[in-house]
Design brief:
alpha+beta, two-stranded antiparallel sheet, 4 strands, about 15% strand
Length: about 170
């Protein structure tokens, strides 16, 4: 299940995968951490009418130290959730792009039950935040939150990277 969070004012989104649609501790902690990373204090969380979404929003509101209002979207009103719907579509497009790139690179076929898929969703969300420029704002989500463009080097998703933990260097361990 893909969990999406979208801040309408600045058009900032984030997504991750959760094992089920429930209000799991991971889902609650992830939302609370994203709201903090967006720099949001007072928020209004809008969700659908289903009991699962309502329970998740209630648990997030209870866990946050800052004011958190809760709002239900009107029944059968996709327009009221338009921003997150657009975010979700962009995320799906980015996941398809990453998936195709990985399949071409490996010569294999990826299925939705593979371990790489949740990471692919998170990576697609990460890429959109750093490189997608919405027409309305003219700048990336990363620029809005961090005040600068993302300019670090990137690796292709699925690329093997050899690395060493920096704390080992600090301790004199090689």
């Amino acid at each position: 299940v893909v969990l999406a969070l979208y801040e309408k004012g600045r058009q900032i989104g984030a997504s991750t995968c959760v094992p089920d649609a429930g209000a799991s501790p991971f889902a609650v902690d992830w939302i609370v951490a994203r709201l903090q990373s967006f720099g949001l204090v007072k928020v209004k969380l809008k969700c659908g009418q289903d009991n699962v979404s309502l329970a998740l929003v209630a648990r997030v509101a209870a866990k946050r130290a800052h004011p958190t209002m809760q709002e239900q979207a009107p029944v059968r009103s996709h327009q009221s959730l338009g921003g997150v719907e657009r975010w979700h579509r962009s995320l799906q497009e980015q996941v398809r792009t990453i998936r195709l790139q990985l399949e071409v690179g490996t010569g294999g076929t990826l299925t939705s039950d593979m371990d790489a898929m949740p990471w692919m969703v998170r990576h697609a969300s990460w890429q959109l935040a750093r490189f997608h420029v919405p027409r309305a704002s003219g700048v990336t989500s990363f620029m809005q939150v961090q005040g600068q463009n993302y300019d670090s080097p990137l690796m292709i998703f699925g690329e093997v990277v050899l690395a060493r933990r920096p704390e080992g260097l600090e301790l004199g361990v090689h």
